[in-house]
Amino acid sequence: MSPSTLGDGARTSRAASPNPLLRRILVTLALLGAVVGLEFGFDTLVPDVALQQLVLFALVNVVVALSLNVINGMAGQFSIGHAGFVGIGAYTAAIVAGHIHKALGVDDILFSNSFIVMPAAILAAGGVAAIFGLVVGLPSLRLRGDYLAIVTLGFAEIFRLVIATAQTGGDVEGPIAKFLAYLGGQNGYAGPDRNGVPQYAGPFWIFGAAVVAVIIAWRLKFSGWGRALRALREDEIATASVGVDPTRYKVTSFVIAATGAGVAGAMLASMRNGNPTVQPDQFTFAYSFDAITMVILGGSGSVSGAIVGGVFVTFTVKMIEQLQRFESVQALQAAYPSLDLNALRMVVYASVLIGLMILRPEGIFGEREIIRRKPRQRVSHAPPEPLPARTEAEANPESETGPLTGKAEK
Amino acid sequence: MSALDLQGVTKTFGGLRAVGGVTFKVPERSIFGLIGPNGAGKTTVFNLVTGVYKPDSGSIRFAGEELSVLKPAQIARRGVARTFQNIRLFGQLTVLENVLVACENRRRSGLLSALLRSPSFFRDEAEMQRRALELLAIFDLDKLADETSTSLSYGNQRRLEIARAMMLEPKILLLDEPAAGMNYGEAEGLKKQIRWLRDRFDLTVILVEHNMQVVMGVCEEIHVLDHGETIAHGTPEEIRKNPKVLAAYLGEETPDEAASAAAAEEEAAT
Description:
heterodimer; A: mainly alpha; ABC transporter involved in vitamin B12 uptake, BtuC; 16 helices; globular; B: alpha/beta; Rossmann fold; six-stranded mixed sheet; four-stranded antiparallel sheet; 11 helices; 43% helix
């Protein structure tokens, strides 16, 4: 009897087809080709530098949303300090990339050198963020709902404020204070020689990171692990009652989310044409809030939703900024000098969100995905009605002594 | 040899003594009833056995091992499965997924092989699904495998909860009010199903139930609690005639009334 399949089953059956390895190699090559093609063709494809920057930033945000989706969407834990992990990744990557770039001794940002710098920066950023994820996650995931939210927010704010308020000038003593001073305080970190973080992350790395993040998020969701995580979100006590340890799964998902955020931070720090300094102000609560918006707007627990949400929020925020260039808006400000355009931006943004939440409270995708995999027809394994029928009249005495399938056979 | 052995188990919530020094042994492969009026502490006993609560004192031993020091998930993995009084399914998950979560702890391939989609991942997944579908077929839920569990009817949800518990391949199955909301005919069916499950899977069933038709009809031994204390223990016949039990359920009364109430209950049970 062929193994029956569902959910991931469509993939199972295809991968079990004669040449799964060949198919995988082809898909990998196609994706690699596309990403390499983008590295060299991006300037022709998107000539406008501002738009280029926006697209790359949107992709970084997709990685942020995908990673936050693991903990907020799939595991159902409400973390509102994701910017903290992005920030840790950004600082770590900036330091690593800056020093390797210096050691390489080549001033130009060469594509070939990015294969030395970026893997190191990504590994370091992901690793350090993961460690922080574990340290924050271990104690705080025993908390529920609002309490967890407060701890994550507290962590992100502590991280940001420690860096932002560090003493940078004058005599600084002690290794920790010296390190914090090195990070540049409110002005930010701009590489070991203070001439900017080397911007090695071109379209190849950022598109590549986004593609890999999507694949990982997808495979996590459609695995036993993702299933247990979603069960946990639905009912923690019931999940424990079937042998799944909630704390272990929550902490693992928190560490994975933090790692993803760290990698996104690495991209943000070394993004081509991006900000060459990593500043604490990039990682305020507003950024955590944007990340939550991306996940909820797209649909909690949906990989497709996180992608769409990441792109949508990035472009919406930008579009509202562009509105400020309109003459009517500028005339408004001329008439009312006390009008804060930045605050106005938040009002418009909030209105858009409220509207969307009223129209689609479950987000754009809910928990669903763009690709709807149809469950295959399954072969029934057991004889009909082995469990005694519900009423006496329907009971069939033979079924109780009939051939047994299932566990007894094994 | 007893499947489960409770010795002087006590649990208080604030000033309330929910379970006070309860001691009983559940014989292996028996169908054991735990009854008592509302608030007697029956569900608390279940929560203590499954590790949701930790007892203040006393011991709970299963196959020679102390359960009260273990976490709920560890107890479940040892082979103690349960259902809940107010059905607790994974609402947004499909029927099949609900059952699959219960074999997550037995998955051999790790997170890395899930990320790499290694052959062992596919093997595991196919094997788990095969077993889950077999089990669903036993509970006549295989046709509904791809429905979300919230869309099921009440009776099907109850059966899915039992199917999910059975996926753990338990040695003890704790059923918390499985007959709640069932009519006479359904309750009769449930009695058969409980016996059938015990015989088919070789397990011990512990039942918390208010429906006397089910309790008296299926249990081989019954333990009665009232206000967290044991008031009786014995066979259904003994329990039915026990004046303390009748008093707990019906209030104090004259022996005449007690006899007629017992007769009425007997009638309902047959």
